[in-house]
Write a structure and sequence with these properties.
The protein is mainly α. It has a single domain, classed as 434 Repressor (Amino-terminal Domain) (Orthogonal Bundle), CATH 1.10.260. The protein has six helices and no strands. The longest helix has 23 residues. It comes from Caulobacter rhizosphaerae. This is Ubiquinone biosynthesis protein UbiJ. Keywords: Ubiquinone.
Length: 107
């Protein structure tokens, strides 16, 4: 478990970029509920999630890890973490597919 997730720091970085916790969760491949648990130190974060946080917020990996209460050694990103642009494109495609399905169901 994380020793201390610095909620205020993460929320301030998100606000600086005009982003929400929902975006942070989505970029890291998490649900809002999973992120809420991480914020409350009740869920461990993976190295890939910490790397996604750092990339989205434009901060060094070590800073994102420290502020998430994770040691930098535990937050080293695996080589297979796709770039942020690819993750965003995948999420946008999912949203478009869901919007199309909703439109189809509405008739």
């Amino acid at each position: 478990m994380a020793l201390f997730f610095d909620q205020l720091w993460y929320d301030a970085r998100l606000a600086e970029r005009g982003l929400s916790r929902t975006v942070l969760a989505a970029v890291a491949g998490m649900t809002g509920e999973e992120l809420a648990l991480a914020y409350k130190d009740q869920r461990e974060l993976t190295a890939a999630q910490i790397a996604a946080f750092a990339e989205l917020l434009g901060v060094p990996l070590a800073e994102a890890a420290r502020r998430a209460g994770v040691g930098v050694h535990a937050a080293a990103p695996p080589a297979e973490v796709p770039p942020l642009e690819r993750r965003v494109a995948v999420l946008e495609a999912r949203v478009a597919a869901l919007e199309a399905e909703i439109a189809r169901l509405k008739g």
